[in-house]
Amino acid sequence: MPRIEALLSARLFLSPQLAGNRIFFISNLARHLSLYVMDEGGSVPQPLLPPHIALQNPELLGGYPFYVLPQLGKILVMIDNDGDENYQPMLIPIDGGFPEPAFGDRFTGYQVFCTYCDPARNLAYLVAQSRRERLTEAFRANLATGELEKLSQSTWGIWIDGGQRGSHTGDTD
Asked: What is the architecture, at CATH level 2, of domain 13-154?
């Protein structure tokens, strides 16, 4: 008779991205969701984040949970603080390491989503929802320089898709 523990211990392999000959993905190999990499032809998955950092389930997160930027030798990862769901854009080396804020403290007090990424141009499109006031802002982010270009803002919400200005209603600037 099969034991239920075998069913409960099934591993997840989520949001795969192929960059060069390496596959980057989110998995619960260490009992919480984290970022891993392995060779395209097969190898032992290697963790890319410190063990105390857990990622959100990508199915519950708006936008991309991470994006590999081979030209920069970095990975953009959306990380919150102990489950507060205030996702922040962080950068780690492509071989793993400690996350550093991609844009300093610019998004403190915001929940940020990466809705589109263009790794060839090192651009990301971000939607930032304020946790202090009714305000959503859209940005084009240059990940090579750290420059943020504000595209729009609204009290009613904005979403960017495909690297183009998203549709919105409400106040804009």
From this structure: 6 Propeller (2.120)
